[in-house]
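In these records, each integer encodes one residue's backbone shape. Here is one protein:

___
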Amino acid sequence: MSVYTIYVGNDEATIKRFSSFLDGTLVTARDHAEAIRSISENCGESPLMILYQKDILKVDAPRIELLKKSFPKAYIVLVFKTIDREELSHYQKAGVNDTSHTDIPKARLLNGIEFVDRNQSLILASLVEKGSLGTYEAPLWKRLFDIIFASLAIVVLLPFVIIIIILIKVESKGPAMYKSKRVGSNYTVFDFYKFRSMYSDADKRLRELLGTNQYCDIEANTEYDFYNANQIPIIEKSNQVLFVSDDEVISEATFMRDKSNKQRNNFVKYENDPRITKVGRFLRKYSIDELPQLINILKGDMSIVGNRPLPLYEAEQLTSDQYIDRFLAPSGLTGLWQVEKRGDSGKLSPEERKQLDIYYANNYNFWMDMKILLKTFTAFVQKENV
């Protein structure tokens, strides 16, 4: 591995275990001061992963902050045996990027290092070229149109929205709306709103569903993922982790392989998904579940027309120069590829979708937006029942 990986701590059992995973290449340091000296003398320009052994928060926090200040490009992983959820936000603020249990399987640790190897190099390149890449700023005409359109839509649709909220809550317990993290313009992460179309215990129903498919004997992952705290919990089968979004499932192994090979993700979709409510099926068929995103538009997170914001794990695949332009454009409620083949998306490959997003980012204007918007009103019915 080309990643300079250093373990900061004195747990001999964990050090021995991690070192065996890395064939003896793991560097160790008893404390943060020794780690700073070792990294400064030996790391050079290599990508850097710091495995920091959890101790006491009030002691750890300033030390992690110092490590992050000394090495801004470092990927810091907090290694723990036990941890309270309340502590995680404090560790995150201090500079922790990820967490790992001391009993992490070898494959997951190596996948993490592989992640740092690829993405750290991109971070280094982006820091050098940041000035030339530019950032997206909404043109005045687009922002004014978004505010006017979204405001009028909310006023007109308010009685309809109230009925939807009542129907959702009558059929199943839980909030009528939910939010999840999405990546939009300039790789900005924001809270993305939708009407709830699944039962509140969707994760339990998913376990039952997966038990009848190729994924079986699964159990909930005991680690808490503070990056996706508002999404369905990650599900794990022994050493296999499954990433779950609204209606798709992908294994971590497939995700890592496809990201490396730049192939199509092998998502698993289920017909008649038992997680989806009856009201939810109707909302999804006519894309009504998307209406709460009018709030995102008023907040400035999104635009009426643009490239759809992506779940975190999907956006993480598109950080290369080849695809970065799709994020230098507005995030949208509807977009170019959605109206090209909507309801028949199987005929539009993932690569074609990405290229349409890039084309929109480089060529959008008022009249293109109006054309996409008009097409949306005539092509919003999804024919797929998945």
Observations:
- Residues 211-272 form one domain.
- DSSP finds 14 helices and 13 strands in the chain.
